[in-house]
Write a structure and sequence with these properties.
about 20% strand, about 40% helix, alpha/beta, about 300 residues, disordered N terminus, 7 strands
Length: about 300
C-alpha cells in the first residue's frame, strides 16, 4: 500500500500510546535508542551522519540483486536492436566520491548475468555533484574489470560532475539502464530528478533500478521510527549533505513513471517493488527497492 501524504493523524497522536509492548520492543531503535540519542547534540550528529553509516551485508546484497535485475531486464530490447555493436549503457546517479557500489563489487551479479546473455561491452557512467579523485576512479574501474575479465567483457567507466535534477547533455533515451542507491534522499527536487531519469532512459525496454530509504508508511507499525524521522529530519539535512529522512520517494517514483494504476502500465511497468526495514541502518531503516521499465 502506498503512504497517504495528506494524513497526519499518526504524527499528531502520541506514538507510545498506540503501541503494545511487543511493538515497542520490535520497533527500530525504540526507547533505549531514543534516550541514548538525547545525550548530546554531538552524539546525535555523529550517529545520524551518513558518512559514518555502516552498510550491513544484507543491504548490500539487496543493492547488488536490484542492480542485476534492472540490467538483466533491459537486455532483451538492447539485443533486439540492429546495431548491437554499441555498448550496453548504464548510468549510476549519485555515485559518490568513493564509488562505493563499484568498489564493493555490487555490479558482480549483473555482469555475470549479462555475460550469460551475450553482452560483452558495457559503458558505466557515474553522475554526482562531487567527482571522485582519480585514484578512487582507478580503483573502481579495476574492480569492475577484475570481475569481468574472465567473461570476455569490457567495462568502460567514467564519472561526470553534475546533478540529475538539471537537464544533462545526454540525449533522450541514451541509457539502457539507470540505477541509484540511497541517492534520491539528497536531491533538492525529487520530481525533477526523476523526470530526468525518465528522459535519459531508453523507451521500449530501458529500466530504472533503485534502493532508497523512505518515510514510514502510515499503515506500517513503525510509529516510533516515523516520529524519529520527523524530529531528526532537519538535523539530518545539515549533517548528512541534504539527506532527508522523511520523504515518500517510492510514491514519487511511481507517479513520475505514471504507474500508479494498473491501466497505466502501457507507459511503464513495475517489474518489482518492495518495502522493507533494515534495523542496523537507523535512522534510514525504512527502505524500498524496485525495478521500473519504460514501455514507451
Amino acid at each position: 500500500m502506498t503512504p497517504k501524504n495528506d494524513d497526519n493523524e499518526v504524527a499528531l497522536r502520541s506514538p507510545l500510546s498506540q503501541l503494545s509492548r511487543r511493538q515497542i520492543l520490535a520497533s527500530p531503535f525504540a526507547i533505549g535508542g531514543a534516550i541514548a540519542y538525547g545525550k548530546s547534540l554531538s552524539d546525535v550528529a555523529k550517529k545520524i551522519s551518513r558518512g559514518d553509516l555502516e552498510y550491513p551485508p544484507a543491504h548490500e546484497k539487496r543493492v547488488e540483486s536490484t542492480i542485476a535485475n534492472a540490467m538483466v531486464a533491459a537486455v532483451p530490447s538492447f539485443l533486439s536492436e540492429k546495431n548491437t555493436n554499441r555498448p550496453f549503457r548504464v548510468l549510476e546517479i549519485g555515485i559518490g566520491d568513493n564509488c562505493r557500489v563499484s568498489r564493493r563489487g555490487l555490479y558482480d551479479e549483473a555482469f555475470e548475468e549479462l555475460s550469460k546473455r551475450g553482452v560483452s561491452n558495457i559503458a558505466l557512467t557515474g553522475l554526482d555533484i562531487v567527482v571522485p579523485k582519480s585514484n578512487v576512479m582507478a580503483q573502481a574501474e579495476n574492480r569492475l574489470n577484475k570481475n569481468s575479465s574472465g567473461k570476455q567483457m569490457k567495462v568502460n567507466f567514467d564519472v561526470l560532475e553534475g546533478s540529475i535534477e538539471s537537464k544533462s547533455t545526454f540525449s533522450n533515451g541514451w541509457f539502457d539502464c539507470v540505477v541509484c542507491a540511497l541517492t534520491l534522499c539528497s536531491v533538492d527536487n525529487q520530481v525533477a530528478a526523476l523526470e530526468e531519469v525518465k528522459r535519459v532512459l531508453r523507451p521500449n525496454g530501458g529500466t530504472f533500478g533503485f534502493v532508497e530509504h523512505v518515510a514510514v508508511n502510515i499503515e506500517e507499525p513503525y510509529r516510533i521510527l516515523n516520529l524519529q524521522q520527523q524530529v531528526f529530519d532537519p538535523l539530518q539535512q545539515v549533517v548528512a549533505h541534504n539527506c532527508h529522512l522523511h520523504r515518500y520517494t517510492g510514491d514519487n517514483i511511481l507517479k513520475v513513471f505514471s504507474i500508479q494504476k494498473e491501466e497505466d502500465y502501457a507507459l511503464s511497468s513495475r517489474l518489482s517493488y518492495e518495502r522493507f526495514l533494515v534495523d542496523d541502518m537507523w535512522p534510514v531503516s525504512s527502505q524500498c527497492c524496485g525495478v521500473i521499465q519504460r514501455n514507451s
